[in-house]
Every structure is written in C-alpha cells, then in structure tokens.
Write a structure and sequence with these properties.
Blueprint (H helix, E strand, L loop, with lengths): L7 H11 L29 E4 L10 H16 L3 E4 L7 H24 L5 H11 L3 H21 L5 E5 L15 E2 L2 E2 L8 H9 L3 E8 L5 E7 L5 H15 L11
Parallel strand pairs: 1-2, 1-3
Antiparallel strand pairs: 3-7, 4-5, 6-7
C-alpha cells in the first residue's frame, strides 16, 4: 500500500500526510513525516546499485528489459556504480502464494459463502486455496518469510539500491483477463505474471515504480527502485534524481484515437 502520484515530489507530499505515528496503529513508525516535505536533492556519486532482470527466477519479456537497460546509463551519469546482482529469492513465490491465500480466506470467506455467484473465478480460487491451509502451513510460510527478509537485509549491506522491472510484461489488451504465458513459460495462476512486484512486497523493503521509457510500439515501461529497510526517503531521492535526469514522465507516446 502506498501513494500513486504524477511526480516523485507529489508522492513524497502524499507520504508527508499519510505517514507518522498513530496510537491506533501499533505498526506505525515513530518518525515525524516532515522529512518527506524537505528537499529530495542528493549526491549519488559512488552509490552502489544492483540491477536484476528477474531476481533469478521469473520470465520477463525482452521488450521490458530492453527499455530498462537503455535507461541504466542515466544512473551512471548520476554517479552510481551498477552491477548485476540480486538477493537469494528462492522459495519466495511459494511463500507469497500461501500468505496471499491466507489473507483472502481471512478477509473474504464470508463473501464466498454469501455471494459466490457474484465473485470472479480467480478470486474464488484464491479464497478456496486459503481455506485449505493449515495453521502449520501459514506458520511455516511466516518463518520462511523471516529468513527471506534477513537475506535481503544482508544484501543491502553491500548495495544501496536495487533496480528491477515493475512488471514482467508490457501493457496487454484490456480483453485479456490475465497473462497466461511469458516467453513460452506457462503461468500457473492469475498472479504469476506479477512476481516482480509481489516478491519485493514480501520483503517489506520500500520500493517505488517510476516511468522509464517506451517500447518501439509506444507502450510504457517502468523501473522499480528498491531500498534498504525503512529508507523510503532514499528511494524517493533516487527516483527524483532519475526523473529529473530523464524527464520520461513528461513524455507521452503517440496514441491513435
């Protein structure tokens, strides 16, 4: 969960009113949110960035990778050093599927019981997957999530940021309910094509998606900037620097009407 905005500054402004301590939320952070209203300017000389096409496990369309790799020199021009690397994400997809199913069962089981005919098949499937889980299944997934968190935390002791695709595919026709295959690899569930975002969310590290460029067909592609735990301000600063250097968010593809 987080803000959606036209610019990085606007996203920071939204965080400045969304963030901050609140006794009604035991997970809220104690820091004052005023920092998000400050300057986003920063020197990135010598900053170490890890670039990963796929976190070593999911297929990504070549068009997505091509657009992002053409934008990587912009980070070099900011003074960053880029290396191909990523944390060990083994088992992360299974963890996500279990915890997502558990949350669907917890939040929507009564809807399924009362209004099954009104619910789409994919959501029915996800709720029923959750209802099949045992307490031990969920406990194991949470324990494995903790292990994954520490692998990613340790990775950010060597790198300041990580870059990866926002989506594994370019935008697809509205008539397509969900992507069934990528690069010849079959997607087993309706959420498999979103793993580039889902697995990062699982780690609870801050991430921001920013416009990166367009394919030759004029389809937009985004790059995901991930930072160390609770370093949202760092992510905003790098996203802002990239936005100012490229002005991609100001460009618009030609659209036939």
């Amino acid at each position: 969960l987080g803000p959606m905005a036209r610019t990085v500054r606007d996203a920071a402004l939204l965080l400045s009113v969304m963030a901050g301590p609140d006794p009604r939320d035991p997970l809220s952070l104690p820091e004052a949110p005023d920092r998000f209203r400050g300057s986003l300017e920063r020197d990135f000389k010598g900053c170490r960035i890890a670039w990963s096409r796929d976190l070593g496990q999911f297929p990504v369309q070549a068009a997505v990778v091509d657009v992002i790799e053409k934008a990587l020199p912009s980070f070099n021009e900011l003074g960053c050093v880029i290396e191909e690397a990523h944390p060990d994400f083994s088992g992360a997809a299974d963890i996500f599927q279990v915890l997502r199913a558990q949350s669907f069962a917890f939040g929507r089981a009564s809807d399924l019981q009362k209004h099954r005919a009104l619910i789409k098949d994919t959501v029915i499937w996800n709720i029923e997957q959750g209802l099949k889980l045992s307490a031990l299944d969920v406990s194991r997934a949470q324990a494995r999530r903790g292990t994954l968190y520490h692998r990613v935390r340790a990775f950010f002791e060597r790198y300041d940021f990580m870059l990866l695709p926002v989506s594994q595919v370019v935008p697809f026709p509205v008539e397509v309910e969900w992507v069934k295959e990528i690069n010849g690899v079959e997607m087993n569930t309706y959420i498999d094509w979103m793993m580039s975002c889902s697995l990062i969310t699982l780690t609870e590290h801050p991430a921001m998606s920013v416009p990166c460029g367009f394919t030759p067909d004029g389809l937009p592609v985004g790059v995901q900037i991930v930072g160390p735990y609770r370093r949202e301000i760092d992510v905003l600063q790098l996203a802002y620097a990239f936005e100012q250097a490229t002005h991609v968010s100001e460009r618009r593809p030609q659209v036939a009407v």
